[in-house]
Write a structure and sequence with these properties.
The protein has 453 residues and is an all-alpha fold. 85% of the residues lie in helices and 0% in strands. The two termini are 37 Å apart.
Length: 453
């Protein structure tokens, strides 16, 4: 409705107004930061994509499977970190002035160092034990991950810290430097003819170390000796992050653990084929992770000041601006699956082209629930994340196992697709319920009921 006493503007003027409004959104300060965030994730995805192609062309399919499984294990470290450290940082790091943030950031960094040290030590011990009992493939791979398991967590924490304080350019430079160092080590391993799946993973660790050192320098204004009480901050962060951690770990098992099961039930070569197909979806991961990294702290600010109802608009914008490129890429890779696999990896990989459309459907479902997952995390409603992924995990260890046994690597993708469908439906239902609770109509009805009592 137009203001009383005025008439609606002519159609051409209305189109002009809408165009200007759209232009303002694209040119806003928030949008510019979003562009940098997308470029940042683009660099990460491009680096992962190119390194996977380089390694696949220089090692056997089985050894590439080792690299793929090792890469998945590194993501386990990120999953643990996400629940215990990163999401509490996103939720609480936007509060307070610079002095109070410095106290929180320094305390949180110390907790992150402890977590990284403990988990990397656990990886070292597990790898050594697997080697001792005679597993000469998985053992050296797991043992060789301890260094990267430590450095990647520290670098990621510092990158996300910069995002929390709107230092997107510094986060982008951190990503660029770490990947330059990563590729330098990768090409050095190739030149020395010692390139394997394990050394490819070690190159990630050296690049992350360079990024961590740069991150410590860029965040120097945030470090202070006046830290918070460790017990208080740990209890508060754990109280918020426990359901996030449960959800992230359940999501890791329900989604990321499928290729590990493929390696165990079929072969590392099958896991390598899976990794090659998944690598085609790097642009999708770029957008999904960029939106998560960029929008969680911003939606948390909006929720803190304006409530859940105010998140409807940014949520719609996320779906609109990411949907078109994601759908276009999924269609392209599905149609050109065989030539893409041949061109990138070789004819040996083209025999698995049927898996690309299945992977595309899985990533489309991931797109359907990713933005609403951001909104749920921003509003600190972490239990639905855990419950949804727990249901998917149970499904994986029942129907998923049967699918892998019956259809091999294609069963892996079909199981992931089914899990993503379960998560999509559950998270959307949970979000609709939460928004409905805070709608003006619901609040008014509750007030009238209380007045009557």
């Amino acid at each position: 409705m137009w203001p009383k006493g005025t008439s609606a503007p002519p159609t051409e003027n209305l189109g002009f107004v809408l165009f200007n409004r759209f232009k303002q959104i694209l040119q806003s300060e928030s949008a510019r930061s979003g562009y940098l965030s997308t470029v940042d994730q683009g660099v990460i995805s491009a680096a992962n994509f190119l390194s996977a192609v380089i390694i696949a062309r220089n090692v056997s399919l089985t050894d590439f499977g080792v690299y793929g499984i090792g890469f998945t294990i590194l993501r386990l470290g990120r999953a643990i970190q996400e629940g215990l450290i990163i999401q509490p940082l996103n939720a609480y790091g936007t509060e307070g002035d610079d002095a109070s943030f410095a106290r929180y950031a320094t305390s949180s960094l110390i907790l992150q160092l402890i977590l990284a040290a403990v988990t990397s030590a656990a990886i070292w011990v597990i790898g050594r034990l697997l080697t001792i009992i005679g597993n000469d493939t998985s053992g050296p791979m797991v043992w060789g991950l301890w260094f990267a398991f430590f450095t990647t967590q520290i670098q990621e924490y510092l990158r996300r810290l910069l995002y929390t304080r709107d230092k997107t350019t510094a986060a982008l430079m951190n990503t660029i430097v770490s990947n330059i160092v990563r590729f330098a080590f990768l090409f050095w391993f190739i030149q020395k003819e010692v390139i394997t799946g394990v050394t490819g993973l070690q190159a990630i660790g050296w690049g992350a170390l360079a990024g961590a050192l740069l991150g410590l320098w860029n965040g120097r204004a945030f470090w202070t000796r006046n830290i918070l009480n460790f017990r208080e901050i740990a209890v508060r962060d754990l109280k918020f992050g426990r359901w996030v951690l449960g959800g992230v770990l359940a999501n890791f098992v329900a989604v990321e653990f499928y290729p590990v099961m493929t390696a165990g039930m079929i072969s590392f070569a099958a896991a390598g084929a899976y990794r090659a197909i998944q690598n085609l979806m790097a642009p999708i991961l770029t957008l999904l992770r960029a939106t998560d990294t960029f929008f969680v702290p911003r939606m948390a600010k909006i929720n803190a000041t304006d409530g859940k109802q105010a998140l409807k608009r940014p949520l719609k914008l996320v779906y609109f601006f990411t949907g078109l490129p994601i759908i276009a890429w999924l269609l392209l890779t599905s149609v050109a699956a065989s030539p893409l696999l041949t061109w990138l990896y070789g004819e040996e990989y083209a025999t698995y082209a049927l898996g690309v459309p299945l992977m595309a459907v899985f990533y489309f479902l991931w797109y359907l629930y990713s933005p609403v997952q951001i909104a749920i995390k921003a509003t600190r409603i972490s239990r639905p994340l855990f419950t949804a992924n727990l249901l998917a995990m149970i499904l994986m260890f029942t129907a998923g196992l049967w699918m892998i046994h019956a259809w091999g690597v294609y069963g892996t993708m079909a199981g992931q697709l089914l899990n993503a469908l379960i998560i999509t439906v559950f998270l959307w239902r949970a979000w609709i319920r939460e928004v409905k609770k805070t709608s003006p109509e619901t609040v008014e009805n509750q007030t009238q009921t209380q007045d009557k009592k």
